[in-house]
Design a protein that fits this description.
Layout (H helix, E strand, L loop, with lengths): L2 E6 L2 E6 L10 H15 L6 E6 L4 E3 L4 H4 L4 H20 L4 E5 L2 E3 L1 H8 L2 E4 L4 E3 L13 H9 L1 H10 L3 E2 H7 L4 E2 L5 H13 L3 H13 L5 H14 L4 H12 L9
Parallel strand pairs: 2-3, 3-5, 4-6, 5-7, 6-8, 7-10
Antiparallel strand pairs: 1-2, 8-9
Helix pairs in contact: 1-3, 3-4, 3-10, 4-5, 5-6
């Protein structure tokens, strides 16, 4: 199954399980993430969540580009809305969610991690938003959540260049809370989840909601604007060129049209 759920005492472990595709997200996987979160919420004994990727190479390499390559503006809007639904569900989930970033976290994978409350990484993690190299831009909340974590300047550098950062740089900027050896990463995330799970659950839920509220009242409207503008990029020649170049393994020749 592309998205697995295990129970580790009071902590739920959700694993994106498509390692041959670097755990790239399909529509099916996005739906299954929502299902797994629903299962966790229905179990009062599960008080924290860890999300990670199968294998040693990738947390999540992003949305499956093959599913987007020929998308129309309307289809892109539907796909972006599903990505927003998942990210918003994680961000507003009543229990804390920890990302164990065990490799590539790119594009939608980075945005999935950004929606989590905390991020731990292994030394081989590479975190970035490379969408501009494909003729589009982050469309699952990245333009809004990344500046809140690392500041506007660092966020703009990552988003506008499309260049991924290494784990040590991500830790320095506050994008990840800590870096752990690859073989210890998931256990460290589970241990952090267990500490949180031992605290008063009503207080933890309320505290998370209040910290989220600090983002400001415009957050929802700005996320919707990001979604709509992302979809508009699928009406451009640059989007077609960028994604064609990705599959043809060549540099894209953007024209600004």
């Amino acid at each position: 199954m592309p998205v697995d759920l295990e129970r580790r005492d009071a902590v739920a472990l959700i694993t994106l399980n498509r390692p041959k595709a670097l755990n790239a997200l399909t529509v099916e996987m996005l739906g299954q993430i929502l299902e797994r979160l629903g299962e966790v919420e229905a179990d009062p004994e599960l008080r924290a969540v860890v999300i990670t990727g199968a294998g040693e190479r990738s947390f999540c390499a992003g949305a499956d580009v093959s599913a987007m390559r020929e998308a129309s503006v309307g289809q892109a809007l539907e796909f972006a809305q599903l990505g927003h639904d998942v990210a918003n569900r994680i961000e507003s989930f009543p229990r804390p969610v920890i990302a164990a970033v065990n490799g590539f976290a790119l594009g939608g994978g980075c945005e999935l991690a950004l929606a989590c409350d905390m991020r731990l990484a292994s030394p081989n993690a590479r975190i970035g938003l490379p969408e501009v190299t494909l003729g589009v831009f982050p469309g699952w909340g990245g333009t809004q959540r990344l500046p809140r974590e690392v500041g506007e300047g660092v966020a703009k550098e990552m988003i506008l260049s499309g260049v991924a950062v290494r784990a040590d740089e991500a830790h320095r900027t506050g994008l990840v809370n800590a870096v752990h050896p690859q073989e210890e990463l998931v256990d460290a995330a589970l241990a952090l989840g267990a500490v949180i799970a031992s605290r008063a659950p009503l207080a933890v839920t309320a505290a998370k909601a209040m910290v989220n509220a600090a983002a400001g009242g415009e957050a929802a409207a700005l996320l919707e604007r990001e979604r709509d503008t992302f979809a508009e990029m699928f009406g451009t020649q640059d989007q077609r060129e960028g994604m064609a170049a990705f599959f043809e393994k060549r540099e894209a020749a953007f024209t600004g049209q």
